[in-house]
Amino acid sequence: MEILTLKASRREQIGRRQVKKIRADKQIPAVVYSKGTEAISIQFTYDDFHRVIHTKAGENAVIQLVISSGTGKPVEKTVVIKEIQQDPVTEKMKHIDFKAISLTEKIEVKVPLHVIGEAMGTKKGGILDVIHYEIEVKCLPTNIPEKFDVDVSGLDIGNSIHVKDMTFPSGVEILIDSEEVVIAVHAPKAEEVPAGEEAKAEPEVIGKEKKEGEAEIAPEAEKSEKSEKAEKKE
């Protein structure tokens, strides 16, 4: 992989006001992180950085930073992009984090997947599902692949491509399980069957009323009233 050069200048002053001024001057603030040493705050033009990342290497570009401080000899550091912060509305780059590396030590990066062809299954109404848009690998900085091409033209409905089915260059260690599905073609979703009419309620069955026997009336006991007549004694 080609090593790209990016000229930058050291930022002596930091803070929101300073950063705002840097962006107003069409420059991007950034920080370089190095193992065992203090981070370096830098800045560079938007156009220069745009040129660097819009190459075949993309965001996996290996960059040779040439950092000037206004006094003394410029400092050079070999770096890769750690993170790009963008404005959520305009998507314009606001801040960059770099990670200093050694060209003789392997690093972990994510390589984009590039789909080639049209899957056979999609012509029959199937749905192409890309599960992994990137494959994480470990290799020397100069051996970072630009992309991984995957030909899906032979995929029918129900077929899939696993990591183990792909071809990788020598010297590149794959950090994802070989059984992982990368791309698959699924059958189209079945249309929902309209709900049937609700079953009509069965007519109420009116059964014959059960005849109840008339209750026998027991004869009332005769009550004899004894009236005592008080005779007037003359």
UniProtKB/TrEMBL annotation:
Molecular function GO terms recorded: 5S rRNA binding; structural constituent of ribosome
Domain Large ribosomal subunit protein bL25 L25: 6-98
Domain of life: Bacteria
Keywords (A to Z) from UniProt: Ribonucleoprotein, Ribosomal protein, RNA-binding, rRNA-binding
GO cellular component, one term: cytosolic large ribosomal subunit
All residue ranges annotated as the Large ribosomal subunit protein bL25 beta domain in the record: 106-189
InterPro entries membership: Rbsml_bL25/Gln-tRNA_synth_N (IPR020056), Ribosomal_bL25/Gln-tRNA_synth (IPR011035), Ribosomal_bL25_b-dom (IPR020057), Ribosomal_bL25_C (IPR037121), Ribosomal_bL25_long (IPR001021), Ribosomal_L25_dom (IPR029751), Ribosomal_uL5_bac-type (IPR020930)
Region (Disordered): 192-234
CDD domains: Ribosomal_L25_TL5_CTC
One GO process term, biological-process aspect: translation
Family: Belongs to the bacterial ribosomal protein bL25 family. CTC subfamily.
Reported function: This is one of the proteins that binds to the 5S RNA in the ribosome where it forms part of the central protuberance.
NCBIfam families in alphabetical order: bL25_bact_ctc (TIGR00731)
Subunit structure, as described in the record: Part of the 50S ribosomal subunit; part of the 5S rRNA/L5/L18/L25 subcomplex. Contacts the 5S rRNA. Binds to the 5S rRNA independently of L5 and L18.
Protein name in UniProt: Large ribosomal subunit protein bL25
